[in-house]
Amino acid sequence: MRLAPSFISAFLFASITLQSGSAFSQDAEPASNEAVIALKNGDRVQGELTDDGKDEITVVSPVFGTVTLDRDQIDDITMLSGSDEEAEAKKKAAAAADAVAAAEKAKSPWSGSVNLGLTYSDNSSTNLTLNLGASAKRETKETVLTMSAQYFYSEDEEEVTDNDVIANIDQTWIMFDENGQLPWSYFAQGTYQWDQFENWEQRVSPYAGIGYALERTENLTVDLRFGGGGTWQYEGNDGFTTQLLFEVNTSWTIDDRSSLTGAVKFAPNVSDFQDYLLTVSAVYKTQLMKDSPLTFNVSFLNIYDSDPGVGENGNDLKLVLGLGYNF
Q1: What is the C-alpha to C-alpha distance for residues 201 and 309, in angstroms, rounded to an integer?
Q2: Contact 48, 31 (CB under 8 A)
Q3: Can you spell out the DSSP letters for 97-144?
Q4: In a 10 Å sphere around its CB, with 0-12 CB exposed, 13-18 middle and 19+ buried, how is residue 184 labelled?
């Protein structure tokens, strides 16, 4: 229905003054787009603004019903305060959601680092120790993939005393339900080792199982894992040993420059728990300067084999200080 301003004036004078709002219950909640339309002749119409067109607007009024007004009849349109607050809140929420989505889209799930440790001495004897390493990580809400490789070389009086490679890969899938992320996960991992001075020379250890997050915050994660797999040794001592796996992983962001990660893995033979591999590792990193990709690293790695073979002590300890570059 299209109403002329003169008709509105007469009706308002005869029946109800919309300007004071007496036509509405004082306890009624305004519609999500409730507005007061001020006409050029001084009258006001309050109702739900359903169409805000270029040439005309449409208002659903509890008094007049559906009213269409030309733009040239209107002096001002005022949205009610409750509606303004709701609209502003929705606008801010939408802007925040867009900003988060844009940030997540812009941020690459990949990160990585390379590191170098080098020691040389020429005193009573000549010693050289070299460590090269690299790691990569891909992390999303649903999965975490980590890969790393380390090379260790030592020389004493030009005689090689250590020459080995250790590579790891770990894939974790995080579980979800209708309420969001769960503390449960499942994983698959593998370790490859080559050592010039071991009886086995090369070995591969694949495992798979389930995990449970004891703690999962922005600065600290602690995960427990249980699974199974085994170790395959070859080149001199062939054979596959079926093993269980018990593992604890932790990652702690100490502050905006420093972090500490660590893991303990216990893999016993399923038929003889006295035959096992025990791996303990930890890495401390601190940025040389704030927001710098350069880091000072201290890494510790010890792999203990309870059944190393003839002439071996079973303990393989690596302690390295060096520099790293994050990307």
Answers
A1: 12
A2: yes
A3: HHHHHHHHHHS-SEEEEEEEEEEEEESSSEEEEEEEEEEEEEE-SSEE
A4: middle
Query: Quick one: tokens of 265?
Result: 């893995």
- Taking only the tens place, the pLDDT of each residue in 119-143 is 776 666 678 899 999 999 999 999 9
285 touches 306 (CB < 8 A)? no
In CATH, the architecture of 5-105 is: Roll (2.30)
Taking the C-alpha atoms of residue 43 and residue 230, their distance in angstroms, rounded to an integer, is 86
Q: What average pLDDT does the chain have?
A: 85
Over residues 187-215, the pLDDT tens digits come to 999 999 999 988 888 999 999 999 999 99
Entry pTM: 0.67
How many whole angstroms separate alpha carbon 230 and alpha carbon 276?
10
Q: What superfamily in CATH does domain 108-326 come from?
A: monomeric porin ompg (2.40.160.40)
**Cα distance between residue 165 and residue 37, in whole Å:** 78
Structural domain boundaries in the chain: 5-105, 108-326
In sequence order, which residues have a C-beta less than 8 Å from that of residue 47 and are 6 or more positions away? 34, 35, 37, 59, 60, 61, 62, 64, 67
